[in-house]
């Protein structure tokens, strides 16, 4: 016995183009507090913590500091540390205090 394929899968597909165009960083960027260099997430060195296998530690490609990164504000041209997480109209954002402006009156 073989099950017939249900034909209703394609009917559910309804592409509507891009959902939204964000002007924030697509990926988090990280700033080394030791040397000040900023790296995209995929350039940060990562490895298992030798003292705790469930943990991941990060390393700076420039100065080799361990776990020295802070998240950078998601405003594209901003290099301040993201110290605020807040819901915006475009989704959850993490910015520095200067860019935490939307919806605050
Ligand atoms: Zn560094
Ligand atoms: Zn900022």
Molecular structure report:
The protein is mainly beta and 105 residues long. The protein has strands at residues 29-32, 38-40, 45-49, 52-59, 69-71, 84-88, 91-95. A hairpin with a 2-residue loop joins strand 6 (84-88) and strand 7 (91-95). The protein is globular. The structure holds zinc ion (2 copies). The site of one zinc ion has 9 residues, from loops.
Main attributes of the structure:
single chain, 105 residues, mainly beta, three-stranded antiparallel beta sheet, 7 strands, 0% helix, binds zinc ion
Topology:
Layout: E1 29-32, E2 38-40, E3 45-49, E4 52-59, E5 69-71, E6 84-88, E7 91-95
Antiparallel strand pairs: 1-2, 1-5, 3-4, 6-7
Bound molecules: zinc ion (2 copies).
One zinc ion is lined by residues 73, 75, 78, 80, 95-96, 98-99.
Low-confidence stretches: 9-14
Shape: globular
Order of helices and strands: EEEEEEE
* Structural class computed from helices and strand pairing: mainly beta
Mean pLDDT: 82
If helices are DSSP runs of H or I spanning 4 or more residues, what is the number of helices?
0
The neighbouring-strand order within the major sheet is 2-1-5
Number of strands: 7
> Strand portion, in percent?
25-35%
Give a concise summary.
The protein is mainly beta. The protein has strands spanning 29-32, 38-40, 45-49, 52-59, 69-71, 84-88, 91-95. The protein has a 3-stranded antiparallel beta sheet, with no helix packed on it.
């Amino acid at each position: 016995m073989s099950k017939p394929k249900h034909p209703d899968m394609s009917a559910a597909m309804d592409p509507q183009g891009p959902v939204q165009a964000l002007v924030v960083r697509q990926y988090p960027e990280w700033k080394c507090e030791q040397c000040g260099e900023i790296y995209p997430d995929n350039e940060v060195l990562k490895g298992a913590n030798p003292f705790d296998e469930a943990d991941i530690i990060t390393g700076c490609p420039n100065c080799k500091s361990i776990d020295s990164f802070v998240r950078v504000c998601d405003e594209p041209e901003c290099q301040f540390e993201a110290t605020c997480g807040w819901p915006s109209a475009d989704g959850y954002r993490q910015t520095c205090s200067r860019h935490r402006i939307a919806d605050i009156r």
